[in-house]
Amino acid sequence: MIPSILNSVKKNLGIAEDYDVYDNDILLFINGVFSTLNQLGVGPDEGFLVEDDSAEWDDFLGGDPRKNHVRTYMFLKVKFMFDPPPTSYAQEAVKELIREHEVRISIQREDAEWTDPTVLVP
Predict the structure, then answer these.
(1) Residue 72: partners with Cβ closer than 8 Å, 6 or more residues away
(2) What is the pLDDT of residues 16-42, one digit of tens each?
(3) Reduced 3-state DSSP string for 31-58
(4) I want to staple 50 with a disulfide (CB 3.0 to 4.6 A). Which of 24, 55, 68, 92 is the partner?
(5) Cα–chain-centroid distance for residue 1?
(6) Helix (H) and strand (E) counts in the chain
(7) Model confidence pTM above 0.85
(8) What is the C-alpha separation between 103 and 101, in angstroms, rounded?
(9) 8 A C-beta contact, residue 70 and residue 111
């Protein structure tokens, strides 16, 4: 697997690593997805920012293989924003995959970090 977040997303989009014309657009979408992941409770509390191809997946995932579905979610979201499917049927199919990954990401986070809301903290 490609360790660089930007380069792995570019590969998924069918863009060569050394072709940087769309990098600013792709980075905008990547960072938007990281904001969404932060709202879902995944990643560092202070958020995560990718500015170039030096940020790696392990920087965000911490080497935890249980969070690998975050990569797929990133690819689906960025692909949908950068190059959406041409038909409404395909768009709805991708939206459903994105929603499924959001649910799975939330379930994974809750399994790992769930706090009982009924317990009072002194």
Answers:
(1) 101
(2) 999 999 999 999 999 999 999 999 988
(3) HHHHHHHHHCCCCCCCCCCCCCCCCEHH
(4) 55
(5) 16
(6) 5, 0
(7) yes
(8) 5
(9) no
